[in-house]
User: Which sequence fits this backbone?
């Protein structure tokens, strides 16, 4: 499968819903070595922190 330049949805334009964000936070926290590692990984995913 190829990625066309006329794709209606760009990777950066996809917004995650709250459930997806919370699941990602849990997985990242589970596999992080410490708080700084967790923050860095969440930042890489474009997720700043807990969504209260």
Assistant:
């Amino acid at each position: 499968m190829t990625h066309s330049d006329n794709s209606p949805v760009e990777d950066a334009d996809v917004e995650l819903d709250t459930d997806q964000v919370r699941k990602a936070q849990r997985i990242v926290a589970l596999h992080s070595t410490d708080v700084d590692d967790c923050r860095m990984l969440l930042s890489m995913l474009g997720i700043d922190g807990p969504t209260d």
User: Anything to note?
Assistant: The CA atoms of residues 38 and 44 lie 10 Å apart. Residues 16-52 form one domain. The radius of gyration is 14 Å.
